[in-house]
Design brief:
single chain, 417 residues, Nucleotidyltransferase, domain 5, 3 domains, five-stranded mixed sheet, 50% helix
Length: 417
């Protein structure tokens, strides 16, 4: 009676419990046997075996816990000489997954989407190498199902993220409508992004309406070549990031000069601890920070110019006077002229960069798409990398990005179910 109940509880097709080997407070070990009516299918070609088997091996398969007890299933697996394949192959068992049941593998995959492999292994009581093998294989199968062919998007954002020291990067393509990573590949050259465009085909490339980028020439050249109808947008987020970096470059230059001149006041106002005062929007400064910034502008002409240029540029996106695309063009041209006359090398360089990418900046006023979502995903990817203390297997890391930020996320499957 107990064996029949456990057979129904396990619910493994074509198999029943022939023997209860062990039933303790910590574990249950059960022996499974195939019903006589069940057919043996070749794992190579799905051909039905009709002749006697070649050999038999007994393996132990790990299943999900039952009432707090670990469950192990011992099962006899037959090997056959297939008439079609002309090879000796083990019979097909869809429910066995790397010495575990398919439902056990599914739980591993779900747990690794919210915890590290080490933590998952500790929770399940298995080695993290076992978790890695199960998780990677499951992700590869899902990727073949959901990411092949490459998902097509209408509005995309392209950005890179470092996965290793010494300028090792991954290029990520994000569907900004669905807010999901749809593709990634090692490198950040134009040839890398070309793979995505070539993968979705010429017809789908023509359907792309907008591409948000961080200003990288490699991404621009690749997009111009393939997504011929797309509006390339140098998005606001990265422009502001570049503007702040330029202000910080001026700060560093003035700090070096102050140290040489032993000007303690300027050193104290421009050191690393105070740099965020220069980078914050003026209307978000505290009263004390505002006083410090005003004092710094009084005693340092270069930083005063840098702050003025920064604040004036912000009006491009916030001023009520800029109502049309033509207004934005006039404003940006005026700002570039002021930056070129500033005598600040960092801002002169920035003005030249903005001149080269003038139309991509203006395109934001046609289509206010942003790659800020890319930076959000980049932070999530960096956190994922830190949690695992890095990834030796770059292909596995790419799959993990899709699991946490893309179409392989188990939460998406639950929504569809």
């Amino acid at each position: 009676m107990l064996k029949e109940c456990l057979t129904q509880l396990l619910n493994i097709k074509h198999y029943y419990i022939s023997e209860i080997i062990s039933f303790t407070e910590s574990e249950i070990i059960l022996k499974l046997k195939k019903y006589d009516y069940a057919k043996s299918i070749c794992s190579g070609c799905n051909h039905e075996h009709t002749k006697g088997h070649h050999s038999t091996n007994t393996i132990t398969v790990k299943d999900l816990p039952l009432s707090g007890r670990k469950v192990f299933l011992k099962i006899e697996i037959n090997t056959y000489r297939c008439d079609c394949c002309k090879r000796i192959l083990v019979e097909k068992n869809d429910w066995i997954y790397i010495r575990a049941t398919m439902r056990y593998a599914q739980d591993v995959y779900r747990l690794t989407s919210i915890a590290t492999n080490t933590e998952t292994g500790w929770y399940l009581g298995v080695d993290d190498e076992v978790v890695y093998r199960i998780d990677k294989r499951r992700l590869e199968e899902l990727a073949d199902e959901k990411l092949n062919p490459y998902p097509v998007a209408i509005n995309i954002s392209v950005d890179e993220v470092a996965y290793k020291k010494y300028h090792r990067y991954l290029t990520n393509v994000i569907d900004t409508d669905k807010k999901l990573v749809v593709w990634n590949e090692k490198g950040r050259k134009s040839e890398v992004l070309n793979k995505y465009y070539e993968g979705i085909g010429e017809k789908n490339c023509k359907k792309i309406k907008s591409v948000a980028i961080d200003g990288a020439r490699t991404y621009i050249s690749s997009t111009q070549k393939y997504a011929v109808n797309a509006l390339i947008v140098y998005d606001k987020f990265h422009i502001m990031q570049k503007l702040n970096n330029t202000v910080d470059t001026v700060r560093k230059t003035e700090l070096q000069i102050a140290r040489k001149n032993n000007d303690e006041e300027i050193v104290n106002l421009t050191n690393c601890k105070q740099r965020f005062i220069l980078l914050k929007n003026k209307n978000k400064l505290t009263q004390n920070q505002d006083l410090l910034l005003n004092r710094l502008c009084e005693i340092n002409k270069s930083i005063y110019k840098a702050i003025l240029l920064k604040e004036s540029f912000l009006e491009l996106y916030s001023s009520d006077n800029i109502k049309t695309v033509n207004d934005a063009k006039i404003f940006l041209l005026k700002w570039i002229k002021e930056a070129l006359k500033s005598e600040l090398p960092a801002f002169i360089e920035l003005a030249k960069s903005f001149t080269d990418k003038f139309m991509y900046i203006i395109n934001w006023f046609h289509k206010k798409i942003s790659s800020a979502i890319s930076e959000g995903f980049n932070n999530k990817i960096k956190r994922l990398k830190r949690m695992a203390y890095g990834y030796k297997d770059i292909e596995y890391f790419k799959l993990k990005i899709h699991q946490h930020c893309g179409l392989l996320n188990p939460r998406l499957q639950l929504k569809h179910e």
